[in-house]
Fold each of these.
Amino acid sequence: MYFEKCIEDMGNKKIKIYVDMDGVIADYNVGIPYNYDKKRPLSTNITKLEKVSKMENVEMHILSVSRMDEGVAQKDEWLNKYAPFFQKENRAIIPRESNNFKSSTELKSDYVKNIERDGSVIIVIDDDCRILKKLQEENNDVILYKDTVLVDWSTLLLGTEQKIKVYLILGTLNFGDTWKFSNFFKCPQNSQVSPKFTKYKIFHNV
């Protein structure tokens, strides 16, 4: 597992990992009314994070934002149901309503800047490139990963005729197209594609 190896390669240092929810461990559907209880858990990502959370030197956190105050309790209940290994005391779910409707980028940036620097390695995993860019600009001591760090590229079956949708993320614009899997990826055997700050997302056709 790629992410697990990334953590193991850091040795015995204490590591604090801050994980976003929407789009990382919970499905994110644009335009669907907010009802967190109905959010589909991204089970593969959750399983990988749970495995890493069992390492003795790792402390796993949630860093998420909700639009309204009531969303905090909804997200908390969702975690109790689908990802209870995130300890309650390690869940930072920040409501925009109680913070003058600041953007998610501002709220997360403020939070990360105020994390106690106690010598631990600080890692943030998020699916929003804008948030990662802001964190990179303001925190040169934080390791930032796109959500694709949880994808094990070596397990994908190259050369199949399965169609996938590739969304190129260019700033705030999303361009969608359908490609044949065998035509899009031409990776050498045993190559490792780094998912850090990856510019594309992959969604299997349903």
Note: Residues 157-206 have pLDDT under 50 and may be disordered.
Amino acid sequence: MVNSVSNGAARLSDSSALEYLGRRISRAGTLAIYAALAIIYFWFGGMKFTLYEANGIQGLVANSPLLSWMYGFMDVMAFSRFLGVLEITVGLLIAARCIAPAASALGGFLSMGLFATTVSFMVTTPGVFEPSLGFPAISAGVGQFLLKDIGLFAASVLVLGDSLTAMGRRRLRAWAAEAISRHSIASRFHASAAPPAEQLESLAPR
């Protein structure tokens, strides 16, 4: 019986340690995703101001029904600069998580939209799939380049969800602090309005 209880306590301790370690690693992973997405957006966004990158994305944009119309009133370089500004802005919003979860929530939402658009390029861009191998084989160039955006889309979903959770916690803490403050003020008011103990004693019937 004693051995059974001892073994159960040991297993419980091990489970608690694993759970704690898992939470710490998960939190570190979440922060790493924020940092990675911000770096990706800063780097990709900065490259959009070069002619090399503007020409590199032209084939993707020109074949996309979602974006090709923008070439009707923007030249290749102007659109690339516009996209660069947008990507750097999204990177800044995501990086603002520690001071403004609402900003990173917006960044996560915009990031989801951007990566959903780039994933759609897999359907509209020629050369994504490798015909010599048949479906679902993808090309080593543009196909694999676009496929990774599925993971980045998932990371953006995590950023949005984590940011909304942080916003809810902040509002709950603010509400709790306000409720405590109101209760404290009300208690002081009632204490000051109450008659002194000596008065109560003098009014008591003898």
Note: Helices lie at 2-47, 51-62, 76-95, 101-124, 142-147, 149-193, 197-203.
